[in-house]
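<amino_acid_chain>
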Amino acid sequence: MKDNVVFRLVLRSFVNLFLSALLAVVSIALVEMIIKFFVRNFYQFYPIKRFARTIVNAFPGELGIFVIAFVLFLFYYLVIQWIYFSYFGKINDSVRRIADGQLEMNYKISVRSTNTFSIIAGNVNRLSDRLQLALVDERKSEQTKNELITNVSHDLRTPLTSIIGYLGLIEQDRYRDEVELRHYVQIAYEKSQRLHELIDDLFEYTRMRHDTVTLKQENFNLVELIGQLLVQYHMLLKEAGMSSKLHCDVTSIQVKGDTAKLVRVFENLISNAMSYGKEGKLIEIRVREIGSEAVVEVTNYGDAIPAIDLPHIFDRFYRGDKSRTQWSGGSGLGLAISKSIVDMHHGSIDVTSDSLQTVFRVTLPRL
């Protein structure tokens, strides 16, 4: 009931009426006492008493006293109401000035705890905070959109330029022999594959961000899934001069989720470990149970991720090492997509890195 402004205003009006009536009665009694006091002690003030009596006697019976009391009542009521509602006028003036841009959006109206309109002032302050946050979010969204367009344009233009360049050489017959022709075709094909991957990643990320992806939930063994992934990466790891090791104390950890989406998460983490952990020669994956959660840790022993990069590692189009090649740097969307997928499964993903190792940790609810 404390936030019911209408109830409090009605109640306050009755209180003001009562106070006005009480003050009117007290005022008449007090004036009567003062006049009598002066008349008894100071004869020269007798005209004041005669004047008051004349006003009262102008009306029959007690009507004169009633008229004076009513006038005093109206006077006190107007004064009290004016004082009480003046705070509302200040609130209205502040809102108008905020709307006209004369005050900052996050301007705070002073809140008087003794006034019913303090509820409105508090709500206006909360509204100002929300509007300020919305304005900041809008500006951030606009900046993000511009960055997205810039990054997408840059990432798509790089392989596209190469494709156009090599196809142009072929179109103009600027090759020495069939071997060089096939070499140009091979490069154009690889760049087109790269372009296809970038576009797929971009669409996938956009769908994830707008919650247009439907998860195909099923129960599966997380340990078995990770084991199968490492088998698939065996040749790639061997070609890169690396090896992998799976650590797990149990043979089965049951979780529920979209296996295809989660496979992409772990593929991204393994590919990332291969790209940035070549110097360590080893990728270790630990799968374990912690309470009601299943935890997967993907560890590589390459260069540490700089501390300045760690807070942004899951941001879209972010590459910790700008000097890397396109292949090792990826599209900059892999980890952002991974985070979106894990979030959709009500899990979490984080990373720690030091001079010894870099650990990506995925936590999922288990059955």
The chain has three domains: 5-103, 135-209, 218-365. Residues 118-171 form the longest helix (54 residues). The first strand starts at residue 218 and ends at 221. Confidence is low (pLDDT under 50) at residues 321-329.
